[in-house]
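task queued by scheduler; priority normal; single chain, no ligands, no partner chains; default sampling; output format set to structure tokens
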Amino acid sequence: MAVVIPAYKAEKLIGEAVRSVLAQTYPDWEIWVVADDGEDYEDLLGRAGLADNRFHFLSSGRVGAGASRARNLALDRIQTPYVAILDADDRMKPRKLELAVAALAASSPIVSSALEVMDAGYNRLRLVGDGPDRVLSPGGYKFVNLSMDSMIVWDRRRCDARYDLNLTNMTDLELLMQLWRTAATVHHLGTPQHDYIKLPSSMSNGEGVTERMIASKKALLERLEKGQYRFAAPDAAEGLIAFLGLSLAAEAAYPLALKETPGLLFENHLEPMLRAYEAQVLAD
């Protein structure tokens, strides 16, 4: 199992991410840290007492070239059949890799996980995707995992892809859309196995974030409507088009909702719209 960690200005938080991998109950892993800021993360982690012969270090050779480029550098080099993505400011729960490997061996070629969404002080804000373990179709996936997709694990022998360098945001979902060309299902772990840390720079109302998110969602929607992706599952495009349409409507309404409810999480704003759509589909 290779765990890919892109790192940009990650000095303060990457230690927590790495410690979470060291604490895994599944021992057969390796970490690939890809610096995208010129930082020597091997030295930085070593000074914090974090050193292991399973650590590998790469550099994009640039500053701020983007997480997609950094992840692709690692994906082009790793030899393991399984790969997991971990952002430098997130953490894995101790059993995440153990449970993911078991699910990959028994079920779908992609494993996702419910999230514990936290603030920068590791205080819980909410859960996303919690509930029973289940197998999800691509068309229904985003109605469960409505926030953040960089917590997936996949079997590269059955589906593989690289990150799209043309998108500024939503690249995790776009990678899944590539994987779904050959993978018809996702095995979802309903007990949160991943800590998603919401930093001020990653909040939906952060500077420039909204504009980039909207542009990327529109780009993905246009691709789907043009039939650019040939999915293995028959309902994939329809469900993803519905989700992106609802998400764009939520983006348009979010500024006013945020004024009415300061601090409102975008997930809390979006989820009622998704549930209302699901209820309408069932009623029809």
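post-processing summary
- The mean pLDDT is 95.
- Residues 209-283 form one domain.
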